[in-house]
């Protein structure tokens, strides 16, 4: 038996590890969980090293290794005994490259967002300044209205609250809220000019 294994190894150019792999793979295909654990144990360091050589980050390499073994389980039925170490190395390499690309895309998106936020274009800066100034003028004008109109106008026009919500908040009837808003509009027409804003 030993002589037969030795001859087989010499004949097909494969070592004992390769033969052991084939035995484990056949067992895994029949649902043997212990064989799966052994197969993962045998290659976890190798897969990690392949992943780390691409991503250069310990935590990320661990994640890639885990994804590699998940993919291995899914793809094992199509494995054709073509050299397991090479086969799983390719899976690990592809997973690591994907992970690296995703990380780069996220960094590019974040950089782009930061640039837009920290260094907005000139037109947007002007727009932001105008909006801020207009907002300040509107608040100032509302503060000059009769006190009973101020809260309903702010809640309805600036915060977009419904009549019912305003009524509940100010402990008024809905009809009172509607009436105050109507009178506030009349007051605005008489006292505000469009050029003030």
TrEMBL record:
Pfam families membership? Sigma70_r2, Sigma70_r4_2
Q: Which residues form the RNA polymerase sigma factor 70 region 4 type domain?
A: 137-187
Keyword hit for Transcription regulation: yes
Under SUPFAM superfamilies, the record lists: Sigma2 domain of RNA polymerase sigma factors, Sigma3 and sigma4 domains of RNA polymerase sigma factors
Where do the RNA polymerase sigma-70 region domain residues begin and end? 39-105
Which residues lie in coiled coils? none
* Presence of the UniProt keyword Transferase in the record: no
- Per the UniProt entry, what are the Gene Ontology biological process annotations, in alphabetical order? DNA-templated transcription initiation
Give the highest taxon in the source lineage.
Answer: Bacteria
**Keywords per UniProt:** Sigma factor, Transcription, Transcription regulation
Quote one Gene Ontology molecular function term: DNA binding
Q: Which family does it belong to?
A: Belongs to the sigma-70 factor family. ECF subfamily.
PANTHER family the record matches: RNA POLYMERASE ECF-TYPE SIGMA FACTO (PTHR43133), RNA POLYMERASE SIGMA FACTOR (PTHR43133:SF51)
- Record's protein name: RNA polymerase sigma factor
Q: Which organism's genome codes for this protein?
A: Gracilibacillus oryzae
